[in-house]
Structures are given as structure tokens and as C-alpha cells.
Design brief:
This is SAP DOMAIN-CONTAINING PROTEIN. The longest helix has 54 residues. Among the domains are: 100 residues, Roll (SH3 type barrels), CATH 2.30.30; 52 residues. The protein is an alpha+beta fold. Strand 5 and strand 6 form a beta hairpin. Strands 1, 2, 3, 4, 5, 6, 7 and 8 form an eight-stranded antiparallel beta sheet that branches.
Length: 270
């Protein structure tokens, strides 16, 4: 598989919503993004290093085809391959090499053979954490239109992937999962191992199933930690809103008092 020179996996935007037919509209915060880290791309790097990166990719592909080990590569070489295919760059050299090997195994679309539908049999609706391998069906929308405030439904897509990260937005404390795609079927299939951002509330309202962990007790620990972080994030948001409301209310009272004093002063002066 020769590397493609046009970074076709760099940026794609999709909308994730419920698979229920009753929800035909999607709002602006339902759009999900497929990409690597934005910080890994710049115009200068793209202009100056594209030829070198393509050469490095060809070298890595050659090693993979010949069945040779990749340990002799530098970390920057591994990241060049990952960046070229729009994959995640995070991790040590060993982690990146493992990701390259997995991508090579999945590139021909055999992800479902390695992770069959039958292996996803635990209903985890409302209960997803980092490390879960999940499968769900999502509606796919065209790009969100800021004028009409919705996107056109293109169809549905089944996605199976590994939850590799979770975070809470700093502004609205919205829970977001990063799902590394193992395989997908349906409208606009996703490239193997491409990162898909899914808002928690959207994932929870889908019919989501997961594989069983080798150690379910370990999962319970991770899940408890996630719930603890969520509680802390919600508390922080509540306190912030209360502080802002108190500050605004205090400013309003001060302004009213100043106007009152000014009125009295004007009356005396008159």
C-alpha cells in the first residue's frame, strides 16, 4: 500500500446523533471531528517536510511488507507515518510502533474479522470508560449549516472502536470520548485507527455495546475514577457559575447605589 501524498485523512467533520428515526435534526454541538492533534500540523511543516515524510512512509511500508522489525526507526519516523495517515501521534516510540503495526493489520478492512460483532454483547449505555472497545450505530449528517441550524441526514454508520481518551470541556464541562476506529460500515466509512471524537451524551443515547475485559474488576476501578472526575468537574462548574452570578449581582447593586447617590446629589445641587 503506497502512501498517498495528499493527507486525505487529515481533517474530516461528521455529525453524530441518535440512531432513532425521531431525531432528524442535529444541533451545532453534535458535530464530531476526525483528526490527529492540530498542533502537529503547520503550513511551514507541510510545505517543507512533505517530500521527506513521503519518503519516510515509503521506507516504513517497505519494512512492513518485508516483515522486518521497526525498532530501528526513530520516533520522528514513526510519527511521520502516523501523521501521513491521520492517526494519533501520542505515545512513546514503542507505542507508536505498535500503532503502526495495528494499522497495517487493519488497513485492508479486516477489522471486523479481528473484532466480530458477536464479541460486543455487553450493553454499556450510559457506562463507558477509557479502555472499552465499543460498537454503536450513528446517524451521519452532512456538514452543519449555521443558517438552517441543522445538517442533512446522509444515512447511518456502524462503528467499532477503542476508547483511548476522555475529557471534559473547559467551557461547558461536556464529556467527550476519543474513539480509535477499528472498523466501520455504512455511509462514509472511517479509515482504520482514525480518531473519532464523540460527545458523551450522544454516545450514551446510542445503542452502545462493548467487549468484555480480561479483568472486569480493573474496569470498575477505571469507571469509578471517571465518575469521580465527572463529579469534580460538575462541582467546579457549579461553583464558577455561582461566583459569576454573585459577582454580576454585586456589580448591579453597586451601580444602583451609585445612581441613587448621584440622583440625590443632583437634587441637592438643583
Amino acid at each position: 500500500m503506497a502512501p498517498d501524498s495528499d493527507r486525505k485523512y487529515k481533517r474530516r467533520v461528521f455529525c453524530l446523533s441518535s440512531s432513532s428515526s425521531s431525531e432528524d435534526n442535529c444541533d451545532d454541538d453534535e458535530f464530531e471531528e476526525i483528526s490527529g492533534d492540530d498542533s502537529n500540523y503547520s503550513e511551514e511543516e507541510e510545505d517543507s517536510g512533505e517530500e521527506e515524510e513521503e519518503s519516510v512512509c515509503e521506507r516504513v511500508v517497505s519494512l512492513l511488507k518485508e516483515g522486518n522489525e521497526l525498532e530501528g526507526l526513530y520516533l520522528k519516523h514513526c510519527k511521520a507515518y502516523l501523521r501521513h495517515y491521520g492517526l494519533r501521534l501520542a505515545g512513546t516510540k514503542a507505542v507508536c510502533i505498535q500503532r503502526i503495526k495495528e494499522h497495517w493489520r487493519l488497513k485492508d478492512g479486516n477489522g471486523e474479522e479481528l473484532n466480530p460483532r458477536s464479541s460486543f454483547f455487553i450493553n454499556c449505555r450510559g457506562d463507558v470508560c477509557k479502555g472499552d472497545v465499543v460498537m454503536f450505530v450513528q446517524k451521519v449528517y452532512s456538514k452543519f449549516n449555521n443558517v438552517t441550524r441543522h445538517g442533512k441526514i446522509l444515512g447511518s454508520r456502524t462503528v467499532a472502536g477503542r476508547v483511548v481518551n476522555e475529557s471534559y470541556g473547559s467551557a461547558k464541562q461536556q464529556h467527550t470520548f476519543t474513539v480509535e476506529v477499528l472498523w466501520s460500515k455504512g455511509v462514509k466509512k472511517l479509515p482504520p485507527l482514525s480518531p473519532l471524537l464523540v460527545k458523551g451524551r450522544n454516545l450514551y443515547k446510542l445503542r452502545t455495546f462493548r467487549q468484555r475485559w480480561n479483568n472486569e474488576a480493573e474496569r470498575q476501578k477505571i469507571l469509578a475514577e471517571k465518575h469521580k472526575r465527572g463529579t469534580a468537574a460538575r462541582l467546579a462548574r457549579t461553583m464558577k457559575k455561582s461566583t459569576m452570578a454573585w459577582s454580576e449581582n454585586g456589580d448591579a447593586k453597586c451601580h444602583k447605589r451609585a445612581l441613587s447617590q448621584q440622583t440625590i446629589s443632583n437634587e441637592k445641587g438643583g
